């Protein structure tokens, strides 16, 4: 007996969630376990549909010709039914000008009289200039759109039914929702439209340059770290002054590797301590939610106490500076071994636990991007642990070691102003990340990317050893800055931090609880997945305000190093490239997830990261 009715690639009619409308879609894959088809609408939106929500085109055409239909889709007049399209596709009516013939208008009204609430949906989705405004949340008072259809519909249909549909598809601030709630004891938009999660399927669109690109990155990333650290050690770290390669044996010391392991497992012990609350992550494609313990900040406090004890007993923390390269090599070796382990274990992971972006079937690609989404040993979540603990806290410890090394080498009683600024700014960044640890659960790293070489190397090597480059640079290249300059840089960092923090909190709170009273003034575009897209507040300013804040901070971290060399600016240059690329990836995913709603969002918020520039 065949387990599925429709084949991959077949063009069928798929029901649009929450409506009675069927649109032409193409089947892209089928999940045997969940019995769900992944289908692609013409505007690019991909959704998972049950078989009962899919019909063959021929049966659909046959039904359309029947006049005594009783199903919702069949109740529509043949004219309105023939407008089969996804909400993302422009309606035919878009091409009509206001001066079109009376016949057209009469036809339109007639159609409206014959259709039920499905048409209200169509009218609202009709992306004429003015309807776009409505859909995108322009205040009611500014609407001068072609509302004749809606008004007529409201006269024809019972108020309750119309409002219910408007509530699902139109946009307003939640203050208005409250009014609506007083009239209907209906649930809010977010609940009314049940989230439809994408079923994991094979990754077809390869990122990072595909197989060759990822292979190159596996070689290039460690080489870049080595190059940067060697450059930083030079008296003149100019771009053209290429550093001599060190002897291989000088890069490895078992004692250093032992200390690295000790550090990693100490952080693992802190992670396992039964302190801190346990929260749920966002729903997985199976609908299941994983639990995460939030105790990163406690781990930081315990680490700070441990470092304090070591310093009290005169342990020489500048050992880290003296063996910096060896520590970096140890961390790289460990992250490579971890990545191999992650890939091997991912081969046995069930299909639904694989990462949406790392399931191409190509070994190198999946090894790099991460094959398994949330690898766990019991309740120990390897990715979540590595994201914020050993590397991030390690970065602060390295910075402190650099500060002490500077004082020792240059015989200073207090660290330089430049070193204090770099240490303080980056300490704030790390403490903020740990304090708001829960927010990491809604980031791409956790929800989309698998755990493979990219994140393992990034978390354990790139973050601690490259992000501390400014402090490392200052040890060998003392820089004097004046108090007014220091004050200006501090203001810049505070501005960046404010944008970064408030944007991230706004989105995180909205994702966790869209009904949060603190967000009552914000407007959003509802989407078919049940999630909204904020169009006011920070997310109405640019499409990635958090990246903007992060980049401003990155600049503030480099400026204390002066302008003698470009090396300390490596971080800000790399970071702009990273976030521009990351933004493009995210944009692509959001377009797939939200289709038309995302396009509307982009129309409403045209700039991606830098207002009026990009
Ligand atoms: P974001 O936190 O920016 O999350 C992007 C997601 O937010 C989208 O996929 C979408 O997910 C949701 N979203 C997009 N637009 C809207 C909107 N208008 N309203 C509501 N939700 C929206 O992504 P990242 O994980 O890339 O970044 C998290 C933080 O980490 C950022 O501050 C970034 O700067 C920082 N970062 C730092 C790095 C570093 O090395 N220091 C590296 C990478 C990131 P959905 O709709 O599915 O919820």
TrEMBL record:
Residues of the Tudor domain: 4-62
SUPFAM superfamilies: Tudor/PWWP/MBT
Alphabetic keyword roster: Cholesterol biosynthesis, Cholesterol metabolism, Cytoplasm, DNA-binding, Endoplasmic reticulum, Lipid biosynthesis, Lipid metabolism, Membrane, Nucleus, Oxidoreductase, Phosphoprotein, Receptor, Steroid biosynthesis, Steroid metabolism, Sterol biosynthesis, Sterol metabolism, Transmembrane, Transmembrane helix
Cited InterPro entries: ERG24_DHCR-like, Lamin-B_rcpt_of_tudor, Sterol_reductase_CS, Tudor
Catalytic activity: 5alpha-cholest-8,14-dien-3beta-ol + NADPH + H(+) = 5alpha-cholest-8-en-3beta-ol + NADP(+); 4,4-dimethyl-8,14-cholestadien-3beta-ol + NADPH + H(+) = 4,4-dimethyl-5alpha-cholest-8-en-3beta-ol + NADP(+); 4,4-dimethyl-5alpha-cholesta-8,24-dien-3beta-ol + NADP(+) = 4,4-dimethyl-5alpha-cholesta-8,14,24-trien-3beta-ol + NADPH + H(+)
GO biological process: cholesterol biosynthetic process
Ranges of Basic and acidic residues composition bias in the record: 101-111
Family note: Belongs to the ERG4/ERG24 family.
Name listed for the protein in its UniProt record: Delta(14)-sterol reductase LBR
